[in-house]
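Morning F.,

Quick status update on the modeling queue. The single chain you submitted on Monday has been processed. Sequence for confirmation:
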Amino acid sequence: MILVVGASGLVGTEVCRRLANRGQAVRALVRRSTAREKVDALRACGADLAMGDLKDPDSLAAACRGADAVVSTASCTLSRQPGDTIETVDLEGQLDLVDAARAERVKRFVFVSFADDGALPFPLAAAKRAVEQAISDLNYTTIQANYFMEVWLSPALGFDYPNAKARIYGDGTRPISWVSYRDVAELCALSVLNPAAARSTIRLGGPEALSPLEVVKIFENDLGRAFKIETVPEERLRADYEAAADPLEKSFAALRLKYAHGVPMEMRRVLAKFPMRLTCVREYALSVAGVAAAATSA
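Structure tokens below.
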């Protein structure tokens, strides 16, 4: 039995589906407040449901009971649930989960984190590093994912492809190996099942390193529309980072600064060890072309 924590989220649901498709028994941790359609999607892929919350240590102990592996994709960054903060979810909640897994003698622990060079301190990075340290005495795999294309190249963060507008952080010339959440989910599934992933940290990006301006060109070509580009200068990003007091605000300010500096990754060694097909930005652009077309015709 594999317990997936964060099962109703972007990556977690996909992890459940991919593990179930491989014939694995999956237990999905969900909250009583989880949207009905998300619960139905988990049931449809064959997952058993366990009610619980990272802010409730007793529920984590019950969820881990009988599990052979834990995959944790949970984070407060896209959550708007009351009481969800970096402190309560990404730090204390994850550490409680690690303690529960250890107490229940869970054999494998796969943790989704993100790549960070440590040059710019911020609360989310500190929480992720603390959890990575906490699992270091387990049979762990840490997946340090790059910038999710479905998040950072979406209207939610200013890449408004339905209206042919793009907000770019920095001058837009530094390359990033944009990764799909589906590929992160695939590596999670592979990491649980492949002994080669044991006791390792894996950095995962996409198949190509593209600057934000190059990404805009791809969208312009595939959507057949010229984009209006808004650039946020690095000086403004730095000022936002220095002024931010709220931990989540501070963390996103730091991530925008890191974006401006670029985060390229070389994937050849990872793919040699874990053969998988990585999603390119053009595939993502084509997948959202219908959304953009609908916005144009509305």
